[in-house]
Amino acid sequence: MTRSRSQQEGTGPCEACDGDVQAAVAFDRYRSLARLRHRMQADLWLSLDVSLAQIRLLNVVAAIPGISVGELARRLHASLPATSQAVDRLVDAGHLERVADPADRRRAVLTLTPSGVQVSDASAGLMQPVRRWLEQLSPEELAAATRIFEALLRIAEAELLPDDGALR
Asked: pTM (2 decimals)?
């Protein structure tokens, strides 16, 4: 692979580009990195034997133990019937339990089973390669990456979180 003059000199690939072009280049680099990460983790994904949507659902329950199906549907931006069906499949697979709400016995809440905890923990491990890659950056590169992630987080939070901190 040949390197451009700007890459050889250590500057970015698009220093003189306008913002839209720079954003497109940055997004392309992000997508390439994500594809490499997915390729190296294909076996782990297959071993989990759950869909990405089911992993998302399990991770929400892991983050909010005792969540109701209705609240889960709201947070996933899904319909109540679709969420209830997904929960039923995960209960049948042994990853979730529906238990009576201690505060209101008429209402059921969700908890992870040991199998559900294992899947949730394994999915969290899917980000470990990114951590390893970050650890290999120079101190200057790591500081720049941290600033970029902080800026992206600030923008995402402003876009997604209303004043009460609840996800839109």
From this structure: 0.58
